[in-house]
Amino acid sequence: MVERTDMGIRKGGAGAIDFGNRLRELRTSRGIQQQEMASILGVSLNTYGRYERGESSPDVKVMERLATLGYDITWLIAGTGTAPQPELQLDPQLLGTIVDAVRALYKAEGAAIPDRTLGEEAARIYSELAPVRHDVSATLIALGEILADRRQRLRESAATPDRSKRPA
User: Fold this and answer.
1) In the predicted model, what is the mean pLDDT of residues 149-155?
2) Which of 44, 50, 53, 119 is 20 to 30 Å apart from 2, CA to CA?
């Protein structure tokens, strides 16, 4: 049975299949697994799979979520233009938390960290957290593990002086 949705895409019709193919293209171009995309959109894996197969169309809430992620809804629905890459949207609160945590880590270990190095380290950690940023508890757990690793490296570097530096 073919029925019309709010978006004008017919379930099981060519429009739904085209939408599903574009949605798959968008997901795979970003290196995201179906399970992760389903979680980001707040739907089950089965529901998301039906979207990609053209068996079902997302409701308005899912389309709004795609739009807030920076995806061009017109391209997804109509295929006009090219698949856009979403703009990098930083979470200032998370980035601030990372900066504070790295600064505190270095202070606790009695090590200095220049502002530039602090920024570079915060950016690296932020990138490492990318796969779990949509899940607050997973982000905090991952951040704790990353900081523990950094603490270990700091302690190891303090125990073994850099041999590339010559005494003055």
Assistant:
1) 92
2) 44
